Amino acid sequence: MEVFYVSLLCLFILLVSLSLHFTFYKKPTSGKTLPPGKTGWPVIGESLEFMSTGWKGHPEKFFFDRMAKYSSHVFKTSLFLEPAAVFCGAAGNKFLFSNENKLVQVWFPSSVNKVFPSSTQTSSREEATKMRKMLPNFLKAEALQRYIGMMDQIAQKHFAAGWENKDEVNVFSLSKNYTFWLACRVFVSIEDPHQVDKFADPFSLLASGILTVPIDFPGTPFNRAIKASNFIRKELQAIIKQRRSDLAEGKASPTQDILSHMLLTSDENGKFMNELDIADKILGLLIGGHDTASSACTFIVKYLAELPQIYDGVYKEQVEIAKSKAPGELLNWDDIQKMKYSWNVACEVMRLAPPLQGAFREAITDFMYNGFSIPKGWKLYWSANSSHKNPEIFPEPYKFDPSRFEGSGPAPYTFVPFGGGPRMCPGKEYARLEILVFMHHLVTKFKWEKVIPDEKIVVNPMPYPEKGLPVRLHPHKA
Ligand code: HEM
């Protein structure tokens, strides 16, 4: 009997390997060659190598090893159960960003679609594209200027509650509190910390479960993420319903937050978003902006602790702005425009520690790239590190040098923390504001030192210091 089961198992493995072989090694119709590279183990491909370089803190190793071995332009691999090609460097970025919906389209691992089902249930791909086009209306600089004072107020409250009168703090968890509190206020006018907390727990279950193994079984992180996403979406729908009636009765202001703005804005055909669409858009913004911006804030604190000269430059700029304000006057758009050096520093931080490592696309047709054939259906990946840490693009790539961003800055498609093309991060300007407001309060209030001088960095999937970056605070004398 045992022999029977062993034979069955061998047969199964053989069949799986053969089917994978035929799927992965399918020659394109014209007999042209696929990009060089290897597809790794059956089923899991090179996913483990891909993830483990991140766990060890140097995700770029996965790419640079293969670029050196196979091709610096494009190489073949297999990730997350899919045959894939990695497009490298500025040319690879440019190609993927500028061929959106022509040769490629956005692709997410199946877990993401299961956690966010409604965008595919309530709207067709066409509808979803239309809705995606509306996002910049709410998040462009002109629309966000009115929220800068509000951001300043939340930052003041955040620093008073989390940083002031403390000897030591854990920066990563505080950064998450800051970005989440800010988002709750700016998106849906939730400001009371208790109400924010009500969302925070399910939200962190969602954020941590969304990219886990998609096993939907009671108790798995993935199952908890689905439940949390349903809970948050329901709560958001209730808030949206209430707001709609408050706006109609004049009890709410059309400019009080992004939710009011969304409810009162129609597309070019005069069509308004329905409640589920708005709930999904807001949930997407909360997810898109949470771990990314808090990772950026955390690494800013880390680099400023390590580089006193850079700290001094940021401090000088921010103190000048603080001195130019009347007592109690909030930060405004003009102040933000003066924070040029601080933003160059933030950009250099995101070059060295990009919050998002890259993203997937899917080939929607067979096409050629750099002499290699890319079959329809393959998953394609752009990687920020493949240009950010390339010495031909950024000389001495591991040196912290904010002057790289002076003048016209890096060449197009080389510095891509926010992606590019039609799918470029719609929250880029919002992120710039929240990061600069954070830096303003941070440096005008404190100097600090790292408690663990050589704390390990983990990238899973965002970069963070393993122990959350504990720092000892030294407040400036008033
Ligand atoms: C430092 C902070 C941030 C970084 C580095 C970042 C980075 C990115 C990148 C690289 C993409 C594009 C992925 C692709 O090519 O497919 C993206 C997409 C996105 N980001 Fe951000 N992001 C940040 C902050 C934010 C914020 C604050 C928000 C919300 C206010 C946001 C909302 C989104 C959304 C909704 C998408 C998906 C857009 C789509 O469906 O096309 N992000 N982000």
TrEMBL record:
Keyword Nucleotide-binding recorded:
no
Q: Can you tell which superkingdom this protein's organism belongs to?
A: Eukaryota
Q: Does the keyword Ribonucleoprotein apply?
A: no
Q: How does it sit in the membrane?
A: Single-pass membrane protein
Q: Name one GO cellular component term.
A: membrane
- Signal sequence coordinates: 1-19
Instruction: Enumerate the PROSITE patterns for this protein.
Output: CYTOCHROME_P450
Against InterPro entries, the record matches this protein to: Cyt_P450, Cyt_P450_CS, Cyt_P450_E_grp-I, Cyt_P450_sf
Q: Predominant location of this chain?
A: membrane
Please give the Gene Ontology molecular function terms for this protein.
Answer: metal ion binding; monooxygenase activity; oxidoreductase activity, acting on paired donors, with incorporation or reduction of molecular oxygen
Q: Where does heme bind?
A: 425
Instruction: Name the keywords, alphabetized.
Output: Heme, Iron, Membrane, Metal-binding, Monooxygenase, Oxidoreductase, Signal, Transmembrane, Transmembrane helix
Cofactor(s) essential for the protein: heme
Instruction: List localization entries.
Output: Membrane
**Family that this chain belongs to:** Belongs to the cytochrome P450 family.
In its UniProt entry, what is this protein called?
A: Cytochrome P450
